[in-house]
Amino acid sequence: MKDLTFTIEEKKVDGAYSQFEISPLEAGFGHTLGTSLRRVLLTALPGAAVTDVVFNGANHQFTTLPGVKEDLVEVVLNLKKVRFSVKSGESFESVKVVLEKIGPGEVRAGDLEVPAQIEVANKDLVIASLSDKKSRLKAQITVSFGVGYSPSEERPSDVLGVIVTDALFSPIKKVNIAVDDVRVGRETNYDKLILDVWTDGTIPAKMALSQSAKILASYFKQVYQPNNHPEEEGEKKTKEPAAMKESVAETKLPTRTVNALEKAGYKTIADLAKAGPKELAQVKNLGKKSVELVEKVLNKKGVGWS
Predict the structure, then answer these.
(1) 84 and 95 in contact (C-beta within 8 Å)?
(2) Which of 111, 128, 122, 143 minimizes the C-alpha distance to 74?
(3) Which superfamily does CATH assign the domain made up of 7-45+171-224 to?
(4) Contact residues for 58 (Cβ-Cβ < 8 A; gap 6+)
């Protein structure tokens, strides 16, 4: 295989849009790389979105509030359009955002009171309109961090007044790919990948592309350098604690051996596992055969001496 000497250039930048050119690539790798990056960009990048909302004075979304021109269904739809950028280094499952506005006038995304971890990207988005000075819109909104798309049916709530919303966490709106021929010296059978990326403004397109490449690299690495199977590790973790807590008296060791161990302060399987054969050999009335029996019991329970 030839050395990878292709370059990545950000040819166009216009707000939340960027165009990248990746070349020269071996014949066929334009589509291979482009399709993979496009799929990861659209489905695997994390983001923040509204997951539920509670309005003061409303028990469900199929109603209206005094002085609010839109019905709550429309207000909820507008809230789902609010995009949140997560500050670098911050991590969270969900945070509470407060919306409180007195009319008259428009209620915009910039009126949301957000915690330190997040910022509103599209502050000019109109959420609702208030008709007069007596009009008031107050709501508590949950913003969650996640990946992909989360339908409201998967997050039902029995709490009266909680309106659960569909959530699109992906910060990527659209990705187009195109592959052209490019010349390298006298050879013309190389690919140039053109990648157009539109984001929602919460993340630069260049950063999104970089994150997607890292995700792909982590999966490919697992192919040629696999880690331990996560299910096997999980099973071991669930079995070990139960065995460790078992008392020495519950084992099938002879009564004489059990008495000698308990008298010496070894009450549980965990105590025996930590001790080791040399330490147990010093226990009074515990001979070599008894130590060998203890080792067999520990091995059967999956917590043998290393």
Answers:
(1) no
(2) 128
(3) RNA polymerase, RBP11-like subunit (3.30.1360.10)
(4) 65, 72, 161
Classify domain 47-168 at the CATH topology level.
Answer: RNA Polymerase Alpha Subunit; Chain A, domain 2 (2.170.120)
Q: Per residue in 45-103, pLDDT tens?
A: 999 999 999 999 998 989 999 999 999 999 999 999 999 999 876 667 899 999 999 98
| The model's pTM | 0.69
Q: Which residue has the higher pLDDT, 78 or 239?
A: 78
pLDDT tens, position by position, 241-273 = 566 777 877 777 888 888 888 888 888 888 878
Cβ proximity of 54 and 162 under 8 Å: yes
How far is Cα 131 from Cα 202, in angstroms, rounded to an integer? 32
Residues 6+ apart with CB under 8 A from 38: 175, 177, 195
Q: Label each residue of 40-81 as H, E or C.
A: HHHHCCEEEEEEEEEECCCCCCCCCCCCECCCHHHHHHHHHC
Query: What pLDDT, on the 0 to 100 scale, is given for residue 231?
Result: 53
CATH homologous superfamily, domain 233-300: 5' to 3' exonuclease, C-terminal subdomain (1.10.150.20)
- Given a contact cutoff of 8 angstroms between Cβ atoms, the answer to whether 97 and 143 are in contact is yes
* Angle, alpha carbons 274-276-282 (nearest 5°): 120
Q: Which two tokens stand for residue 293?
A: 């029996």
